[in-house]
User: Fold this.
Amino acid sequence: MRKFLVVLDDTRECLNAMRFAALRAAHTGGGVTILSIIPPEEYQHWMGVADLMRAEARERIEAHFEVFAKWMRDKQGINPELVIREGDPVVEILAQVSEDPEIGVLVLGAGTEKSGPGPLVTQMSRNSGNLPIPITIVPGDMSKERLESIT
Assistant:
């Protein structure tokens, strides 16, 4: 089964990437893996604080995931998988792609700010020539109706 890998973060454009991945998976008989990355802690020498921050981040990620997962199950018939990794986002995305041979497409949402599509889209675009899978970049301001019509 081909899976769509989509990154769950706190950006607005993440919503369109989730929608696109779920709709494409539903229309093609695929699956969805939702990847959330906890950035490296700056307070590594305070182990108790770092552990607490890590646990809180996981709780927040799982709560966000459940919102998207419920929508995917109820509306698209897709039961997504959650993967939580820690580290640099680009490194962790590349690691997830190399560790899961069923991942066939990376789906990213592009920001709508004048400063550009966002750091993750920019960095992954630079690495796209070395990726074993294609990247789909979904515009952050694309309407839900337009997304549905093109998937």
The chain has a mean pLDDT of 90. The beta strands are 3-7, 31-38, 81-86, 103-110, 135-139.
